[in-house]
Amino acid sequence: MNQPKQIAGHDLIPGTMINDHLSVPDTAYGIPYSIICGREPGPVLLLTAGIHNAEFVGIQAAIELSRELVPENLAGTVIIVPLANRSGFEHRTMSLVYEDTKNLNRVFPGNLEGTESERIAFLLFHSLILKADAFIDLHSGDGFEELTPYVYFVGETPCETESAAMAACVNADHCVRSRCKTGGAYNLAAVNGIPSILIERGQLSLFPRHQIEADKEDVRNIMRLLGMLPENPRTYRKQQLTETELSAPAGGCWYPELHAGDYFSAGDLLGTIRDYFGHTISSVSAPENGFLLHQCASLNIIKDGPMLSYGTYLPDDIDAGF
User: Fold this and answer.
1) Is 141:94 a contact under the CB 8 Å cutoff?
2) Quick one: how far is CA 11 from the chain centroid?
3) Tell me, what's the pLDDT at 239?
4) Of 22, 75, 163, 230, which is most buried with the most CB atoms under 10 A?
5) CA 43 to each of CA 31, 147, 223, 289: distance values in angstroms, whole numbers, following the listed order
6) Does pTM surpass 0.85?
């Protein structure tokens, strides 16, 4: 465990709670964060949400956890960032940082001399992520995305086994063993040896109570795994997937045939794109058997933009024994 004595300039004093903002140079926005220092020693867990600012389930879950977790019952330290992309949230830009229109989760580890997104990523990565012993990043379907709950961890990293054990504590039926090792916050954390997962739950910028509670329970369950809360963790067996993303071959009106969480076979029709007279521009068929993780659920679709993501099965599933 890293056991830092300070995080973001604050001394880690057992039994204390801190609410503050991480100052981003040359910007008007500070990034809100909370630090809860347990009375007993233990690991440092980082929880982030709002890297994509319209993914509200994780944001609300993180806000509530920052108020519900207390030092008296905690071993170790929890850092909670409920809203990483604050300017995007306050301007309702979906996944993009308002000032430079970049996707924050594509620019890690960032650049302190770069654009707004790159400066935010740099500070999050160097001030918080690299200080952690474990990292959970909360995401959802964006305002135009339908999504079924699942969890990511990165394969072939120094902490793959530990990350997979964290993923096994998430109450979802599917897990993506990711091949991506660049750009994203949790991806680069894992490459740097910090056990990390990304939880996907929620869709269409909605934030129903049962999904918020499920996110919160997943976080607490992982904290039990890490020895930060009493009691043993519950684990959930999962089908392991590898992910394929399909971009839209044309722009126009999108008519999906399936829903997130559906299975399909090679050759099945996944959806059609039509022009504004209702004529078919493109029919999209499944290139192989798969499981639909998320898809565009809006009428409009953008050429070369997100259309859908599906998983194909890997030979192993994961459980507590991983």
Assistant:
1) no
2) 28
3) 94
4) 163
5) 23, 32, 9, 41
6) yes
